[in-house]
What does this fold into?
Amino acid sequence: MLIPQPNPMTPCPRPKPADSAPAAITKQEVNAAQQAWGEGIVEIGEAYTEDGNYREIAADHVREFYAFNGDATVLFKPTLAAEDQFRGNFEEALSYFVGTEGTEDSGFAIAPYTDVRWENEGTVVDEDGDMAVAMGNYFFTGTDGDETKVEYSFGYTKDEDGNLKIVLHHSSLPYSPN
It folds into this structure.
């Protein structure tokens, strides 16, 4: 029996270098990141209600989901912000989530909420797969069962470890003519 021999002219596949770019962003990753972000908001509120370390949980949430610790620019315009409309760094984002005395921030995430539900109008991934933008409505369920509808646009990139990070977060309450 003859054993086929490799052709010496056929190049061997080369492994990717360790510093290669992360895999392209997928819509499924965006959906998973949204779900996890919402679960984090619920967790912050639960910790606050139970006199837990909600500030540390919120700090971990901001570190996990936003690109403040890298060299990316983060464009963050939270819903309930009028005086300090834009939050360009970690400390300002954290203040929005848990509040800071003497500011307009009362702590959005400590409300608390029991659920965050997402309805994407659409998700666009650029042709290189290194950025995605999702837009739609998300709904925050309070402890009384009432939902608050909020409009959003989120932009995502991946960090060097392949983790999805928010680089754009704009949210607002729907227009009301009254």
About this structure: The domain at 27-172 is CATH 3.10.450.50 (Nuclear Transport Factor 2; Chain: A,).
